[in-house]
Amino acid sequence: MAYQVTLIPGDGIGPEVSSSARRVLEATGVPFEWDIQEAGVTALEKHGDVLPDSVIASIQRNGIALKGPLTTPVGGGFRSVNVALRHTLDLYANLRPARTYKGVQSPYDDVDLVVVRENMEDLYAGVEFDAGTPAAAEVIAEINKRSAKKVSESAAVSIKAITPENSRRIVRFAFDYAVKNGRRLVTAVHKANIMKFTDGLFLKVAQEVAQDYPSIEFNDRIVDNMCMQLVQKPELYDILVMPNLYGDILSDLTAGMIGGLGVAPSANIGDRAAVFEAIHGSAPAYAGQNVANPTAMILSGAMLLRHIGEMAAAEAVERAVAAVIAAGEKVTYDLRPDRDRTKAASTTEMTDAIIAELGR
Ligand code: NAD
To answer: Rounded to the nearest whole angstrom, what is the distance from the C-alpha of residue 72 to the centroid of ligand 1?
Structure first.
């Protein structure tokens, strides 16, 4: 039976790169039925909403979505589609693998890391009080009544809340991913030496969860030290699990280590739904020109295959992508050392080359 998948083509270069991913997924022989849904500015123009309820309903029904990048309309009260999707569907795990592909310009040649970022809480949740407002004054007065450390009355305040429930499920997710994908080590990243209660709680929960997975090694690193170690000796690490804000920053660091936006896939995963997408945006300047690099979107498709248990197909896609990039001929301009557009392959030519490689 075919897998039912919601396909959101997206805005800008979205339709081109998601069409590439769809073609590559279909070429693996795994059967798919696509439920095509519009979101972003395309949906805004047609339905007056960047995220029509029908899109959420489709993902809830199918449990899996492949999503092209969406343009965030500038100005005026639009809800962020990504945040809305994440919260409505409880997509609590953001998964960002970072692996070097031979042929992509990068200072590193052997990175193979996976960042698992908690998606729902932490400072990133946006519980904030603007400086000088009555609400901030009340919050600060309450803090100063209860805490030995005082907050200045002129301060803006952001709240960092970490729960044992969310910490447990994200760390469990990281270990389950390790087991399912044959990985060896999970590292919890935190600042528990300073934030003893919030990050301390995250670390304590991580240590407890680790006991349930004796076949996977576990250690922890303080986030600043982690950044230095990643730059100096990334080969020591494997899966990194962390609260939301550290994950936001470290996953861009690891994407930079492997050569950036064109090749970096991601997924937002919950217990009932999962959304797979490139980390890059809709690059409006390149829309409709058939020049965008489809790799990140295709690799997001490989993550989708892995998620539904089609491991052989996922590996075949990753191998085909790696072979085409390593050969260096049928690659888009951004993967060429000279960035010469006249010699570069188009989006469709690179996709065709990947599909041809799949057949070898
Ligand atoms: P962007 O990722 O769209 O583009 C930044 C630059 O990266 C581009 O100018 C281009 O040079 C390059 N680039 C990105 N993807 C590429 C590809 N596949 N192939 C070749 N080059 C590529 O980031 P931005 O310009 O900050 O954002 C543009 C729009 O995308 C905004 O509306 C933003 O809100 C949105 N956005 C959406 C998502 C998402 O839907 N997940 C993520 C990021 C940004």
So the answer is: 11
Q: 100: Cβ below 6 Å to ligand 1?
A: no
Does the Cβ of 357 fall within 6 Å of ligand 1? Answer: no
The reply to whether 116 and 219 lie within a common domain is yes
Q: Examine residue 301 and state whether it is found in any structural domain, yes or no.
A: yes
Please tell me the residue having the least CA distance from ligand 1 atom 30.
281
Domain's final residue, options 229, 257, 285: 257
Catalytic: 108?
no
Q: Give me ligand 1 centre to Cα 235, in Å.
A: 29
pLDDT in tens, 59-93: 999 999 999 999 877 766 666 788 889 999 999 99
Assess whether 269 and 359 both reside in one domain: yes
Mutational test site, ligand 1, from 41, 50, 280, 339, max ligand atoms within 8 Å of CB: 280
Catalytic residue among 124, 237, 286, 333: 124
Q: Is the CB of 259 under 6 A from ligand 1?
A: no
Q: Which residues in the chain come in under a pLDDT of 70?
A: 75-79
Residues 19 and 63 in one domain: yes
Q: What is the pTM of this model?
A: 0.94
Residue 200 phi/psi, 5° resolution?
A: -60, -40
The answer to whether position 101 is within a domain reads no
Residue 76: predicted pLDDT = 61
User: How far apart are the C-alpha atoms of 323 and 102, rounded to whole Å?
Assistant: 9
Q: Is 334 assigned a catalytic role?
A: no
The verdict on the CB of residue 82 being under 6 Å from ligand 1 is yes
Q: How far apart are CA 27 and CA 294, in angstroms?
A: 15
Same-domain check for residues 69 and 176: no
Summarised one tens digit per residue, pLDDT across range 48-65 is 888 999 999 999 999 999
Quick one: pLDDT at residue 82?
A: 84
β 112-118/32-36 pair status: unpaired
Q: Are residues 187 and 149 in the same domain?
A: no
Spatial CB neighbours of 118, under 8 Å, sequence gap ≥ 6: 92, 93, 94, 166, 167, 170, 241, 242, 243, 244, 247
204 and 268 fall within a common domain: no
* Same domain? 168 vs 251: yes
Residue 223 sits in which domain range? 112-122+163-257
**Residue 321 · residue 298 · CB < 8 Å:** yes
